[in-house]
Amino acid sequence: MHPHPILVAASVLVAVLLALTAYVAVVQGPDVLTVLSLLVLAMLGFGIFGALREPPQ
User: Fold this and answer.
1) Angstrom distance (rounded) from CA 3 to CA 5
2) Distance (Å, rounded) from C-alpha 46 to C-alpha 19?
3) What is the pLDDT of residues 8-35, one digit of tens each?
């Protein structure tokens, strides 16, 4: 299976969660939970994109 559809779906998921986090940060102001959410999204994004860009061995 080609990873392209999975990469698109993962990109959309991370983008939507990032947009929702940014919306909350703008409306309510940044706090500990928004910073934690950004850190979790960064780890999720790096993990997904790193795993999908490397071919299996």
Assistant:
1) 6
2) 17
3) 888 899 999 999 999 999 999 999 999 9
